[in-house]
């Protein structure tokens, strides 16, 4: 077993800044993230994540006033989004601006349903985790770095239509930067969501593909990415973070990424975005487990997203004294069978039909790094 923080080291990308900007105040320091409450209903404990749909509630933006309204909108003609945008701009540039504090609005979207989601529903979770998820597919469907199902494409088109209405009727600001996980279900979801929207010339849809946004690296083949060339071929306009390797060097067929490694990676990729990108309006297309970890790193309450769902967060990032580097197990074994299992038992692992059962524990229900169907 590899015992180190290799995963974090690999993912702490040097600020080789695609954007060419560096948050110098953060040099040699740590960053503490806060999800600022009072702007979106999702951070309110009274809002249930179950069945929540961004497209019925203006992404959850709360109707309220901001201290900047009086000057920005004396005539009372601006939309909620325009007034919120002016407030965020003020937070980042007002006369009391501290150089060790930054605010960003992050929109984190989960990909639309992929073939791996459909297959987990089809086979049931024990058979999926113990056997089917380790295969490339079943002859009918392929779920190694899967594409979207027709239902998943519809979820992305729904987001596309909703963003258009927000831009046209609500004057929602256009994103200044886009990021995506390298897994196809995310690069495709981002494309279907944004590619055909008419955007201002200075805010084009040019996502940066970052390893740190990928799903928890269980041994499931749905979490192994395609090569850089294959991603480029599908999406020639997408860019890659510095150091993005041609082949997938992070996924492992026999050992899974631990929760601790996943949490450190989520914090590291957010640190990297805040250190290298001075923009405020940011779209991230990622995964259920990844967004769970990102919300954790942002000190936001848990808010599980169904496929195709999107959550915005107003983030305050503050430079603090350098914190100790966490030490953790980067990988752990994963229980599987060589054939479809009889069942699996929580805490004990897979019950295989043959004598090849591995006695290793199956991931517990708390592990967010699965490929959940909902
Ligand atoms: C980070 O900010 C939170 C408030 O969101 C605070 O409770 C916490 O103590 C801070 N952590 C550090 C290490 O400064
Ligand atoms: C904000 O107000 C609009 C119209 O005035 C309403 O449709 C919407 O539901 C309100 N949003 C929230 C989150 O209360
Ligand atoms: C393969 O899995 C898909 C779900 O991803 C399912 O719809 C299909 O029926 C399965 N094919 C076979 C041959 O079992
Ligand atoms: C990207 O999105 C555009 C606009 O919806 C679509 O025409 C195109 O086929 C998509 N490309 C891929 C590879 O999905």
Automatic annotation (TrEMBL):
The keyword Signal applies. Residues 1-28 form the signal peptide. This is Phosphoglycerate mutase. GO terms for cellular component: cytoplasm. InterPro entries: His_Pase_superF_clade-1, His_PPase_superfam, PGM_Phosphatase. It comes from Parachaetomium inaequale. It holds the Pfam family His_Phos_1. Keywords: Signal. GO terms for molecular function: phosphatase activity. The keyword tRNA processing does not apply.
């Amino acid at each position: 077993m590899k015992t180190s923080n290799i995963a974090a080291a690999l993912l702490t990308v040097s600020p080789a800044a695609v954007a060419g900007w560096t948050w110098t105040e953060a040099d040699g320091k740590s960053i503490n993230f806060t999800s600022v409450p009072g702007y979106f209903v999702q951070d309110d404990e009274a809002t249930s994540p179950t069945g929540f749909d961004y497209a019925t509630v203006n992404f959850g933006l709360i109707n309220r006033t901001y201290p900047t309204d009086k000057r920005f909108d004396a005539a009372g003609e601006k939309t909620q989004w325009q007034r919120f945008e002016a407030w965020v701009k003020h937070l980042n540039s007002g006369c009391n601006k501290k150089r060790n504090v930054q605010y960003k609005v992050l929109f984190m979207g989960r990909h639309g349903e992929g073939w791996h989601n459909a297959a987990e529903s089809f086979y049931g979770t024990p058979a999926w985790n113990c056997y089917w998820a380790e295969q490339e597919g079943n002859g009918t469907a392929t779920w190694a770095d899967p594409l979207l199902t027709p239902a998943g494409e519809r979820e992305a088109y729904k987001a596309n239509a909703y963003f258009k209405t927000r831009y046209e009727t609500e004057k929602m600001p256009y994103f200044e930067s886009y990021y995506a996980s390298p897994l196809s279900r995310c690069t495709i979801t981002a494309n279907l969501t944004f590619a055909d929207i008419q955007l201002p010339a200075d805010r084009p849809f040019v996502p940066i593909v970052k390893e740190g946004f990928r799903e928890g690296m269980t041994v499931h083949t749905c979490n192994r990415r395609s090569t850089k060339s294959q991603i480029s071929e599908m999406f020639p306009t997408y860019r890659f973070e510095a150091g993005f390797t041609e082949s997938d060097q992070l996924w492992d067929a026999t050992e899974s990424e631990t929760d601790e490694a996943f949490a450190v990676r989520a914090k590291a990729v957010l640190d990297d975005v805040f250190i290298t990108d001075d923009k405020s309006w940011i779209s991230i297309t990622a995964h259920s487990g990844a967004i769970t970890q990102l919300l954790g790193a942002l000190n936001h309450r848990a808010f599980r997203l169904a496929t195709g769902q999107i959550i915005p967060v107003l983030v305050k990032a503050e430079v603090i004294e350098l914190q100790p580097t966490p030490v953790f197990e980067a990988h752990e074994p994963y229980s599987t069978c060589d054939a479809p299992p009889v069942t699996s038992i929580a805490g004990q692992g897979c019950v295989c039909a043959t004598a090849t059962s591995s006695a290793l524990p199956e991931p517990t229900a708390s592990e967010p790094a699965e490929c959940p169907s909902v």
